[in-house]
Amino acid sequence: MRRPVVRKLSVLAVSAAVVSVGAAAPPTAPDSPVQKVPVAVGHGGAVASVDADASAAGIEVLRRGGNAVDAAVATAAALGVTEPYSAGIGGGGYFVYYDAKSRTVRTIDGRETAPLTADSELFVENGTAIPFAEAVSSGLSVGTPGTPATWQQALQKWGSRSLGSVLAPAERLARDGFTVDDTFRAQTAANETRFRYFPDTAKLFLPNGAPPAVGSTFKNPDLARTYAELARKGVGALYRGDIAEDIVDTVNKPPVDPGSGWNARPGDLSAKDLAAYRAKFQAPTRTSYRGLGVYSIAPSSSGGTTVGEALNILENTDLNKASEVRYLHRYIEAARIAFADRGRWVGDPAFEDVPAKELLSQRYADSRACLIKDDAVLTSPLAPGDPRDPAACSAGGTAAPTTYEGDSTTHLTVADRWGNVVAYTLTIEQTGGSGITVPGRGFLLNNELTDFSFTPANPAVHDPNLPGPGKRPRSSIAPTIVLDRHDRPVVALGSPGGATIITTVLQTLTGFLDRGLPLVDAIAAPRASQRNQTTTELEPGLYGSPLRARLEAIGHGFRLNPEIGAATAVQRLPGGKWLAAAEKVRRGGGSAMVVRPAS
């Protein structure tokens, strides 16, 4: 676990927040470490993230009277310090907010955008797609960051505290440092070779020329100064000021070590691109499942439509009474079908005609659900249907494979004492992003544009996810809030994991809502991920179980994935209590906290 070296977070916030069900209260001395526990129950609000310091930052804001939006931004900013390879102000994300007063869900699309000069051949040289790894660690991969604009919009619209106030815990954490854990060191080591290509990245993340040792103190004074500047000047400094100039210079002339031999292709990001960026308020996706309202993010992310379509496909199957084999079989096949439709129909709606309403219709789901048979397995790549003209059990259309999407990112979930809820997933794309640190600023730039298809997945099928000027690449991010019949929260959740985000959210929801698992156990359950591919990925808990052979007997094929996703969630309980839940093991375990633990 990560532990701040100088404890300046509110003692009450930390000591009150770290008690989980059945756990004893930790010491309350100022220098006691922040503990990582996967579940906590209590009053006054809740925060769940992958990191204890980040969750504590959110709890501090809640303790001081801030609301869920304030705490979400504080937690996200702290993750930019302790999880810099997954998120930060050099990236983007999607913010889903439940307003308790109006009992409505609102969302912000804070996805990165391509330069205004980009075209469909952004990643094509001499008629051939650039190798993926070469595109990642280059200026070409960097989109205009959306995270700072998302924070500003959320705070101005729904928050109760200033940007400077909610950035303060993260600024302290960057300045004073945190203790390196196994995960941080392992992620650094995995990126060591490419980090060495960029001297500013190597100087920051390879202190003394090597990945930081477990137990050592990691400080980021440049990021602390950057946060302080944003606190003083507002996020406009990143889109129009000195920070903006530094970003443009870094993208267009990547500061690569000439002795490394690395071809860090320049991007074409301009001051105009940054000044023109807007985080977009938009309506959420909505579908009904078991009489509950399921809300998520609409395109440019495919998360809301794909999770929603899969739930609609499963609507008429009693998963509560199904055997474990039938449950997993139906879940896998629903995900396969939904991904087939995602690949054909979902892209940035500013550029593509995305039939989101039709994709989420029960009529269309029923026309696709009848493809599923209990004694046979569909073959991938499966052809998409046409949601605008549903045909029962139609296998028409031309199939296209699912393109690759990086598996980093981070998710946080927050609730406050008034009943407001935030589910927020943010990212710099793959672990370590582009690998390029903005000199003197302390943050990595994203490689989000590699989420575009470099070339059409199948030349015979329209690909809605090719690059374009100012276009947002398709995402799989799926922060989700479920409401009851009275429009009150039941559960909110989300996960990192690239395209596996969709299946992680879907499986966790069905485990919790249908299979009756406690929330923390629904998160911990071993995962399967089918994304319209020839084989389904299984975590070890399923790959090594008898269930695998029983599913193979039907016709399923599997491959091993050591770890899929890293979810966090909150659940509303009676009497104004909240339950926060996070991973027990994945990514070193997550951190669930509440303001006032239940006795």
Automatic annotation (TrEMBL):
GO molecular function: glutathione hydrolase activity; leukotriene C4 gamma-glutamyl transferase activity
Superkingdom of the source species: Bacteria
Keywords for the protein's UniProt record, in alphabetical order: Acyltransferase, Glutathione biosynthesis, Hydrolase, Signal, Transferase, Zymogen
InterPro entries: GGT_bact, GGT_lsub, GGT_peptidase, GGT_ssub_C, Ntn_hydrolases_N
Pathway involvement of the protein, from the record: Sulfur metabolism; glutathione metabolism
EC number in record: 2.3.2.2, 3.4.19.13
Post-translational modification: Cleaved by autocatalysis into a large and a small subunit.
Catalytic residue positions: 409 (nucleophile)
Segments of this protein annotated with the region Disordered: 381-401
Membership in a protein family: Belongs to the gamma-glutamyltransferase family.
Protein name: Glutathione hydrolase proenzyme
Organism per entry: Streptomyces ferrugineus
